[in-house]
Amino acid sequence: MGSSVLPDNAVRLPQTPQLHALLTIIRDRDTPRSDFIFYSDRIIRILVEEGLNYLPVDEHTVMTPTGVPYTGVAFHGRICGVSILRAGEAMETALREVCRSVRIGKILIQRDERTAQPKLFYAKLPDDIADRWVLLLDPMLATGGSAIQAMNVLVSHGVKPEKIIFLNMIASPEGLQNVWKAYPQVRVVSAWVDSKLSDKNYIIPGLGDYGDRYYSG
């Protein structure tokens, strides 16, 4: 995204040489599927870890094996993941590795051929999702249409926008702005922000269709 300023609700991962190298591998059209999955999973793990930094904590004191108390913090409240199908499912493994026994819901949104707008086709969410913090998962943020529709679904199920943390690997500046306009209270955490959208709404330079590369090769 160059020197452009991110919306107030958006943050990027630290732009380290390691992250840049990992993204270079998965952007390469000649990277085989096995490597694409392996290095994508590494990025997603870093992304999930960063997303957890935005959960609230309370002071918590424990007793150490030396008999000396230590005052630290403990997470406040329960969480769940919600993946936007199908690409979002690729992020579930990393979330489960970081958060034991985490509950995960799923939302399927596809383009309506008549209106060319995103349309909800399926949603399966935890019954108590309104009482949880939600990590919304989708690797790519292009126009933001699917993400905003997913946020609409979560809000309609009682989730407060300020309790949604949207995790994505690569975002477009346009998509970030659209999410900001629709839900400024939602925290958006991206690994990288690319230059722009093409006239066909593809992220440039992007990495192609994430779901196809992850699941089909």
UniProtKB/TrEMBL annotation:
<dbReference type="GO" id="GO:0005525">
    <property type="term" value="F:GTP binding"/>
</dbReference>
<dbReference type="Pfam" id="PF14681">
    <property type="entry name" value="UPRTase"/>
</dbReference>
<dbReference type="GO" id="GO:0008655">
    <property type="term" value="P:pyrimidine-containing compound salvage"/>
</dbReference>
<dbReference type="InterPro" id="IPR029057">
    <property type="entry name" value="PRTase-like"/>
</dbReference>
<keyword id="KW-0808">Transferase</keyword>
<feature type="domain" description="Phosphoribosyltransferase">
    <location>
        <begin position="14"/>
        <end position="216"/>
    </location>
</feature>
<dbReference type="GO" id="GO:0004845">
    <property type="term" value="F:uracil phosphoribosyltransferase activity"/>
</dbReference>
<keyword id="KW-0021">Allosteric enzyme</keyword>
<comment type="pathway">
    <text>Pyrimidine metabolism; UMP biosynthesis via salvage pathway; UMP from uracil: step 1/1.</text>
</comment>
<keyword id="KW-0342">GTP-binding</keyword>
<dbReference type="InterPro" id="IPR000836">
    <property type="entry name" value="PRTase_dom"/>
</dbReference>
<comment type="similarity">
    <text>Belongs to the UPRTase family.</text>
</comment>
<protein>
    <recommendedName>
        <fullName>uracil phosphoribosyltransferase</fullName>
        <ecNumber>2.4.2.9</ecNumber>
    </recommendedName>
</protein>
<keyword id="KW-0547">Nucleotide-binding</keyword>
<keyword id="KW-0328">Glycosyltransferase</keyword>
